[in-house]
Amino acid sequence: MKIIAMYLPQFYRTPENDSWWGDGFTDWVSVKSAIPLFKGHIQPKIPQNDNYYNLLEKKNLIWQTELMHQYGVDGMCIYHYWFKDGRKVLEKPAENLLQWTEIDMPFCFCWANEAWARSWSNVPEKNVWTNVHEPINEETENDVLLEQDYGNENDWEEHFKYMLPFFKDERYIKIDGKPLYLIYRIDAVSCLRDMLTLWKKMTLDAGFPGLYVVGANGGIGQKSILDAVLIHEPKTSFWRNYLLEPEKNDHPKQDSYDDIWESILSNVGYKDIRTYFGGFVGYDDTPRRGEEGIVITGASPEKFKKYLKRLLVKNYLSGSEILFLNAWNEWGEGMYLEPDISFGTGYLEAVREAKDEYMDCLEKEESKSSDLEKRYQRMVILKDRIEDNLQILDKWLSIHEKKSSLVEFIREKLKGSIAIYGYGILGKHLYDEFKTEKIPVDFIVDKEPEKVHVKVPVYDASGVLPRVDNIIVTSVYFFDEIYSHLEGVGFKRIYSIKDLVNECIGNV
Question: With the C-alpha atoms ordered 148, 150, 155, 156, is the resulting torsion angle positive or negative?
Fold first, then answer.
C-alpha cells in the first residue's frame, strides 16, 4: 500500500492573493490570525520552529521531501488550478519541482476545478478560500475572482499540453504506466466524457498506455469514463453525519474525530468501479471560516494511527493500492502531517508505524463484513441519489431566478427532436417546462410506463425505442449504464440533465 498526501501550494505570495485579500496574503496569514472559539479549542496552530515557509524556496521542498521519505509518505497529490481561458494560479511550486529534478518528490495532480468567488456570490461549486479576510465592502467587489469554464476542444488541448511535461517526468506517479490524475469536482464538468476522451487519446499519442483518471466528490454517474473514484474525507462523512442531526445549530459546527473515522470505515464504497477510501489527519477550518467553520474535535496521533491502520486494511481488501490522505500541509483547515509545536512529528510517526503494522489487523477487519454493511450501502446509494437531485434542482431554480430558461437553452443547443429518459422528479419537471414553453417532446422512456400519464407516447426502457435526434437522461445516478445501453442500440446524441443544467447555469 502506498500513501499519497494531498498537497496545497498556497504558501507563497501571488498578485491574485495580494489583490483579493491584501498585500502579502498566503494561507499562513489565516493560520497566524486564528483564535480559539470555544473551551478547549486549540488555535492558532503553530508550525514547529516557526517554520512559516515559502514554497518558492528550494530548501523547503527539499525539507518536505526528506520528511516524506523518512516517515513513509510515498507521494504528494498537488492541487492544480486551471481556470477559464487557461488562466493558472499557484502553479509555481509544481513548475519549480519540474525543473529541480534532483528533488525526489513523487507527485501527481488533483485539478481543483472550482471557481474562486466571494462568500456572498451565488456561484455553485466555488472556493471562497477565506471568509475571515474578505473585504468588508461587498458592493464594490467583483464576486467572481476566477471563473471556472471548461471551454471547447481547443481549450482542453491547451490544458493537456501544459500538463504533458509533468506526466513525462519520471517522478510523476503512474498506475500501470498511466499518469494518475484526480479531478476534485468531477460532477461539475459538463463536458467530462468528451474532454477525457480527447485527453486519453492525447496520452496514447504521447506514448503512455492511457490516462488514469480518479473522480473525487462524485462521479458515480460517469463510471465508464473514469478509472476510479475517491471518497474524499473528512467532509463526505461530516456532512453525512451532520444531516442526521438537523437540530444542531452550533457555530462553528462540530463533530468528534472518532465518529467521523467510524463513518469513514463503515463506508462500503461503490459497485463496478474501484473506490479509494480517503483518510484525514485532523480538521479545523476556523482559521479561514471563523464561526462559520467546522471543527472535528478529539484528534491525536494515537487515534490517527489506530484508524489509519484500519483504513489501510480497508483499501487493501477492496483492491486499492493507494490511500489518499488529507493532507500534507492544509494548515488553514487543520489537516497537516507537518510538525507543529503541539505534537512535533507525532502524526508523521503514526503514518510510518501504521504502514508497518496494518497487516496485523487484516483478519479482524475482514470479519467485520456483514449484512449491516450491505444495508448501509443501500442507504448510501439512496442518499447520493437524493443529493444529486437536490443539487440539480437547486441550480435549476437559480436559472429561473436569473430570468433565464433551461428548456430554451436546451432547444438552442440540441436542435431537432427530443425524448426524455426517466419520468421521476427531474423528468416530470423537465416535461412540464417543455409543455409550458410549447416545445415538443416526441416521447418518454421509463421502466414503469404504465404509471406515466402524459399526452405523448411512453415506452418501456427495456423495449425497442423509436428513432429521435436527442435523448435527455434524467435518471442521473444511472446515466453511465443508460448511456452505454442507448449507444449500443444506435443512439448518438445522449445528454444528462445534470450536464445540461451545469452548462446552462454557466451561461446565464
Answer: positive
Task: Examine the domain organization and report whether 348 and 431 are in the same domain.
Answer: no
Please tell me whether the peptide bond between 234 and the residue prior to it is cis, using omega within 30 degrees of 0.
yes
Distance, CA of 179 to CA of 157 (rounded, Å): 16
Q: Which triple of cell numbers denotes residue 384?
A: 447520493
Give the tens place of pLDDT for each residue, 329-347: 999 999 999 999 999 999 9
Is beta strand 115-117 parallel, antiparallel or unpaired with respect to 126-127? parallel
**What cell was used for 310?**
484500519
Total count of domains within the chain: 2
Strands (E), 376-426: 418-421
Please tell me the distance from the alpha carbon of residue 304 to that of residue 293, in angstroms, as a whole number: 22
Residues 6+ apart with CB under 8 A from 206: 164, 167, 168
Say what percent of the chain tops pLDDT 90. 75
CA 328/CA 381 separation, integer angstroms: 30
Inter-residue contact 336 to 328 (CB < 8 Å): yes
* 196 lies in the same domain as 281: yes
Instruction: Identify the domain containing residue 326 by its residue range.
Output: 2-366
Sheet (strand 126-127) strand order? 126-127, 115-117, 144-146
Is 0.70 surpassed by the pTM of this model? yes
The closest of 117, 21, 29, 36 to 286, measured between CA atoms, is 36
- Among the listed residues 298, 301, 262, 304, the one whose alpha carbon sits nearest the alpha carbon of residue 280: 304
Burial class for 496, CB neighbours closer than 10 Å (0-12, 13-18, 19+): buried
DSSP 172: B
Contact indicator for 215, 209 with CB cutoff of 8 Å: no
